[in-house]
């Protein structure tokens, strides 16, 4: 083995101090393993989805994922994070670790090599004649259901299933379980799964719609919040404390139990911390309702 060529690169891929041994074949692949286009001496780098010009550190084409990254320039290379990240096929920045194939036909999955690990699932235990033993088996199978759900989510995530898709599958499973319960066509396995859902909610303690009241109380003393919003929240807190009467949804007067949002305002989750993905209101902030609706449309969720 002998060294035939050395290439040094600036952060955006421009070469300098190139050294090539005489009589060696020209190597077309270099920066980040991509093909270096030498036609017409342009010096461009061909990524899978776009052509990159290292001289200016920009792509020529609009990012195919531009609608998902409205805060970023559609021509930016590696989202301008070029010292600690690599460019993922002309789509977005990525950590320079191991990627796994995506069975759903989307971009490769950053797995740190864990896609080579298959987490096994646990088989259910059978019931017997002893009531005490059956109680233990029931509890054990419910816990196994939680583990198996986590293992399946991990395995599917390693091959490209996104969090929203996994949650969608779980929601379908819950709907099917409820349908079976209403028709009476429910099995022991279904009851175990229902018990597992209850255990998850008790242990997790953080749900997508939880923590709203405590967050509103925090905002009442937030120096960054406007006086009108803070005044409204404090007034609502006093109403809850006094148990002031409010008209309920059924038209009857009831003691107020919860703090309401200021008029025309929503307590909105931060970007990429959606309620449907299990995030609580811990980091939520008040936004104009109209702006909140537009954000949902931009990011493609309801």
Written overview of the protein:
- Helix 1 (131-157) crosses helix 3 (188-204).
- The mean pLDDT is 76.
- The chain is built from 6 helices and 14 strands.
- The radius of gyration is 28 Å and the shape is flat.
- The protein is of the alpha+beta class and 302 residues long.
- Helices cover 33% and strands 15% of the residues.
- Strands 3-4-5-6 form a 4-stranded antiparallel sheet, with no helix packed on it. Strands 1-2 form a two-stranded antiparallel sheet. A two-stranded antiparallel sheet has the order 7-8.
- The chain has helices at 131-157, 163-183, 188-204, 212-219, 227-242, 289-299; strands at 5-9, 15-20, 35-37, 44-46, 51-53, 58-59, 86-88, 92-94, 99-100, 109-110, 245-247, 253-255, 265-268, 285-288.
- The longest helix has 27 residues, at 131-157.
What would a concise description of this structure say?
This protein has 302 residues and is α+β, with helices and mostly antiparallel strands. The protein is 33% helix and 15% strand.
Topology overview:
Blueprint: E1 5-9, E2 15-20, E3 35-37, E4 44-46, E5 51-53, E6 58-59, E7 86-88, E8 92-94, E9 99-100, E10 109-110, H1 131-157, H2 163-183, H3 188-204, H4 212-219, H5 227-242, E11 245-247, E12 253-255, E13 265-268, E14 285-288, H6 289-299
Antiparallel strand pairs: 1-2, 3-4, 4-5, 5-6, 7-8, 9-10, 11-12, 13-14
Helix pairs in contact: 1-3
């Amino acid at each position: 083995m002998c060294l035939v060529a050395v290439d040094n690169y600036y952060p955006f891929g421009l070469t300098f101090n190139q050294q090539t041994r005489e009589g060696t074949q020209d190597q077309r692949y270099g920066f980040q393993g991509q093909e270096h286009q030498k036609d017409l001496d342009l010096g461009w780098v061909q990524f899978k989805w776009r052509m990159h010009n290292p001289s200016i550190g920009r792509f020529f084409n609009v990012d195919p994922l531009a609608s998902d990254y409205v805060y970023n320039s559609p021509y930016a290379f590696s989202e301008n994070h070029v010292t600690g990240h690599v460019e993922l096929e002309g789509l977005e920045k990525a950590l320079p670790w191991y990627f796994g194939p995506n069975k759903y036909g989307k971009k490769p999955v950053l797995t740190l090599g864990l896609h080579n690990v298959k987490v096994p699932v646990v088989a259910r235990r059978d019931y017997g004649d002893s009531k005490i033993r059956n109680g233990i088996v029931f509890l054990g199978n419910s816990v196994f259901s939680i583990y198996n759900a986590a293992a399946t989510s991990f395995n599917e995530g390693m091959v490209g299933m996104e969090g929203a898709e996994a949650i969608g599958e779980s929601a379908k499973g819950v709907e099917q379980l409820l349908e079976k319960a209403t028709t009476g066509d429910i099995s022991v396995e279904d009851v175990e799964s229902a018990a597992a859902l209850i255990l998850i909610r008790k242990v997790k303690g953080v749900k997508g719609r939880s923590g709203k009241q405590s967050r509103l109380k925090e905002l009442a003393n937030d120096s960054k919040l406007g006086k009108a919003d803070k005044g409204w929240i404090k007034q609502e807190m006093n109403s809850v404390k006094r148990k002031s009467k409010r008209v309920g949804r059924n038209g009857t007067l009831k003691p107020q139990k919860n703090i309401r949002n200021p008029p025309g305002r929503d307590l909105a989750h931060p970007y990429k911390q959606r309620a449907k993905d299990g995030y609580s209101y811990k980091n939520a902030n008040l936004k104009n309702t109209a702006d909140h609706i537009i954000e949902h449309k931009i990011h493609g969720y309801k």
